[in-house]
Protein: Peptidyl-tRNA hydrolase
Amino acid sequence: MKLIIGLGNPESRYNNTRHNIGFDLVDSLAAAFGSSFSSGKGKYLAAKITHRQETLMLIKPTTYMNLSGHAVVAAMNFHKVQKNDILVVCDDLNLPSGTMRLRAKGSAGGQNGLKHIIESLGSDEFARLRIGIRLGEMPPGSFSSFVLGKFSAEERVVMDRTLESCREAVLDFAKNGIEHAMNHYNKSAE
Structure:
């Protein structure tokens, strides 16, 4: 079993925001496989899908982004999953919109959801899929207002295409592991 954890904020006012792209990805995977989310055994929602005989539990923390580690630990404990069987999906302000990066481990890179997961697990050795949300030069204003802002119509078209590739990358991770997925999908994103 693999846990695919999409990061985001739980309130509906955050739907379709850049910061919730992790939720968008797991929502699209659930929809593609005819699954739906229900309450998990902790502060998260879960949906189960099966792809090529591999079970994936799609997880959406119901904590805010900055407290995502609590939900990740609860889901890992309940499903008896180790760090090498999780993939955390989040936004990345440092990557251009429409790109993705898979990594086997690493720092939080300024992403507070990842930071809390690293703190909660006591390790940065878990796979992550970062989805770029930066639009060239940053618009004036705060980073938080940008990441919590909604996608424009043009951005949404780009992100929908990106989510297609991300879904394929997640399924590759589930079947073949992070190294295989990185070798295949990071090349096409560069």
The domain at 2-189 is CATH 3.40.50.1470 (Rossmann fold).
